Amino acid sequence: MTETTSGSARGSKANGAPKKGAVKGTPGKAAKGLRVERIHTTPGVHPYDEVTWTRRDVVMTNWRDGSVNFEQHGVEFPDSWSVNAVNIVTSKYFRGAVGTPQREWSLKQLIDRVVKTYRAAGEKEGYFATGEDAEVFEQELAHALLHQIFSFNSPVWFNVGTAQPQQVSACFILSVDDSMESILDWYKEEGMIFKGGSGAGLNLSRIRSSKELLSSGGNASGPVSFMRGADASAGTIKSGGATRRAAKMVVLDVDHPDVEAFIDTKVTEEEKIRALRDAGFDMDLGGDDITSVQYQNANNSVRVTDEFMNAVGAGEKFGLRSRMTGEVIEEVDAKGLFRKMAEAAWACADPGIQYDDTINRWHTSPETGRITASNPCSEYMHLDNSSCNLASLNLMKFLDDDGEGNQRFDATRFAKVVELVITAMDISICFADFPTQKIGETTRAYRQLGIGYANLGALLMATGHAYDSDGGRALAGAITSLMTGTSYKRSAELADIVGAYDGYARNADAHKRVMKQHADANTAAVRIDDLDSPVWAAATEAWQDVLRLGEKNGFRNAQASVLAPTGTIGLMMDCDTTGVEPDLALVKFKKLVGGGSMQIVNNTVPQALRRLGYQPEQVEAIVAHIADHGNVIDAPGLKAEHYEVFDCAMGERAISPMGHVRMMAAAQPFLSGAISKTVNLPESASVEDIEEVYLEGWRLGTKALAVYRDNCKVGQPLSAKKADEKAKAETAPVAAEPQKVVEYRPTRRRLPKGRPGITTSFTVGGAEGYMTANSYPDDGLGEVFLKMSKQGSTLAGMMDAFSIAVSVGLQYGVPLETYVSKFTNMRFEPAGLTDDQDVRMAQSIVDYIFRRLALDFLPFETRSALGIHSASERQRHLETGSYEPEGGYEEEPDLESLQQSAPRQVTSAPSAAAPAPKADGAEAKPADAGRTVHNSTELAEIQLGLNADAPLCFSCGTKMRRAGSCYVCEGCGSTSGCS
Fold this sequence. Notes:
four-stranded antiparallel β-sheet; ten-stranded mixed β-sheet; disordered N terminus
């Protein structure tokens, strides 16, 4: 490789385009080290001096109760960084106690802490030819991080350069053998990994089944029973000292005699959750009562073989084998077992599926051992007792756009950044600490890396490609191939300088065979257009170098690439989309500097329209339509054949499930590991649909799949169902008409002197009280009076004040459903059992009061959307699967029916006030009552008239969004996974 001069222009500092005259370096042994080239930096100018720095205050609150979760003033960041990125980096990654001199306060300190540690380790281990090369390495790494071109995974930011153990890996795979000592070691090792905030996966198939005998003659417990202990441990340990649950993966081979019991574990527990919820217990994710349910802290996957999948297709029998002898001890119908997996996934999203033979066909180190398991998010797959550190590149930083619709993906600069990042990732293994000795030994011997990318969905849209299209898949495949080919090329160059990985000699033939498989897949790939063809050409050149240099030098790393969820680090890089995912929606929620927020149309939409040939005035009109409607349907001037370019993960034009599978298949042949991604299916999807997804995933060569059918789990926010349909029907005609700005001022409508009412006596957790609810003769609830404790006591006074506040609000037109949505599930003492058969458990007095009011005064569809049902309705659901009686509910409950159905009395009460009459067509919709938007997921829900099946963040209470097979909070950066 000879020295040359790059002639590409630097462009804007924000997008990190290269400088003129950047000198390329020459990897090799000239001075027993790498010659590091400049990509973005200028000699004599530090990257920090090329940006404008600003001071900001970071104050993060829990929107549910207004409490401050985190606060730090005067932090220093580039002015180009978003509020979200600043908040997340400050709260998650700055080290030192807040308020002390040791606390980090500038992004410069954070980046210096990491890159200087990498440089020092690289110099110590002989990676660089000269001190000047080490200097260039440090500055280029700092520039790429400063400009959000890539990011290391979270453990690097947590630990590197600190006094604590420098753990750099987020993904771990453990092992367990058929002995009590090994099982107890499993519990301990998993607990230590959870304590550090990471996740782990393992395969339990070595443990003998419950259908086999112990050496003492008794029956074995089986792996499913030992899963209970591990699940309880995971549920007890607060991962990383936070409130989120641990992330773990449990795998069982399809030929294990206990595989049917394994498949049933989550299904049985999901039925238990529904029964307990209907009995009044708090079974939401993170609820007080969910801990009584087992197997909820792990993702489960069945490891299937080609033999099994062929038996499914042929309708043949399949043998379940003894763990001790390998003999077939039972035969089952393969198609029936496969159907049982799909039925379980349909019911509760578990188990997922992993394709064992496909995984091991691409295994670079088979002489050391088979790949039997994965990390919790399923992207890291390699040897037992190993780990992988991750880093992801922001693909949008490599898209060059001249503003006139002419675009290209800068393959040359992308490859150079990949070389830089892979070098840094390998250096980290030299100084890293590991949670167990076995993991440390394996990782140092095989040096597994996991480079990946984020923002693929945004890149495809910006370049005018539909996510589910041949062109989109070709571009994704080309980029993935170039990334992995360049990574292995640099790995071979590093092997020449600092040596191949310790396990390479015994696995050399297999490793080179897998490299040729990648190269052959690259050669066979179809080129589609002017964007992907140059990238394929660069990838082809990279793979030729891999084969040539690998034959000569071997390889430094047994694994190079994966596609991880990129949850928190995706937010750190201000990415619109995570990992390999498509865009969530066309309209986003954006926080503003200095407070406040606004909704904006994705910046990628105008780029896509320009790429498709639309004129500026057409682009402006289409963007305005999207801002008003949240979609492109009937946008002025937009051609119908271009609608698919703007298809997203949610909404009326959501990408089909098979579109997700095909995208995974396009990238998989060019990855060392696998892909973290869940295939979402609509609630109406059938078991056959899930079977087809699993079959197609195997046929197309993916390594693993997980599915999620909307609303299949109880531990998620409820979908509005019929309320959503009603909301769509109400908004559809309005959307077609010009919007008018009308200002409404509430007026108070008082109740008549004599009005009907209901007095209810109740007991909550042993505390007794009375509630009187008075109504308008023809218009619902108008006032509430509460009597608790003795007159003159603090509690009685607070109840009186609370009653007046609620009553005045009702009389000014605040819908009852707004109060119900705000005050149900509020927790404080007294709480516990009640004497009301319809509300058996209450988390507080106000929780009981508003559940009772909802049952008495709200129509069935409204309160059902809020998850509130009577005892008879819950019983009907258990018997028929539906809460509604035949014919459904047509009207709101009237006062006469309430008198007849409950031992309560109609009363007269002192005069109070009344709600304002609603203007025609201005009635509040139950689904949107009191709805406040806190992030892009919630904005998409309102825009698209649906509810995303995602948990609420344990830290700040906002709705999370899916990132791969995990979830990430846009508000504070918390994740439900291991990265």
